[in-house]
């Protein structure tokens, strides 16, 4: 599989996930974005915390630009909470672990 095919396959898989999966928190990020780099340890921690509760999907806006366009991502990082394709909550910028947790708790009780 070429890099291009891999990229298309990953993008298709993520698109499918965001559209159909039960609970997903997507982080749209960019490798060159300092805010995203600072968020990385928080996102890792959040992933561990949410295991079995919801899936955390990280989407590189440069690699998966079609997906970023589809969800009108204007700044990175942007976090979107999905349930079966519906956007329940969305926020951009650096967020605390507590804020991410609270977003999930607000909708998933």
TrEMBL record:
PROSITE patterns: THIOREDOXIN_1 (PS00194), THIOREDOXIN_2 (PS51352). The keyword Electron transport applies. One of its GO terms (molecular function) is protein-disulfide reductase activity. Pfam families: Thioredoxin (PF00085). Disulfide bonds join 33-36. GO terms for biological process: cell redox homeostasis. Residues 1-109 form the Thioredoxin domain. The keyword Metal-binding does not apply. One of its GO terms (cellular component) is cytosol. Keywords: Disulfide bond, Electron transport, Redox-active center, Transport. Belongs to the thioredoxin family. This is Thioredoxin. It comes from Bacteroides faecalis.
């Amino acid at each position: 599989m070429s890099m291009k095919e891999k990229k298309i396959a990953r993008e298709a898989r993520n698109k499918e996930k965001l559209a159909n999966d039960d609970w997903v928190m997507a982080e749209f990020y960019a490798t060159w974005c300092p805010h995203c780099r600072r968020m990385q340890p928080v996102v890792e921690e959040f992933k561990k915390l949410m295991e079995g509760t919801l899936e955390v999907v990280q989407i590189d806006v440069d690699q998966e630009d079609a997906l970023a366009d589809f969800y009108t991502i204007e700044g990175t990082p942007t976090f979107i909470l999905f349930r079966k394709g519906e956007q329940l909550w969305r926020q951009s910028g650096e967020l605390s672990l507590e804020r991410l947790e609270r977003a999930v708790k607000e909708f998933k009780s």
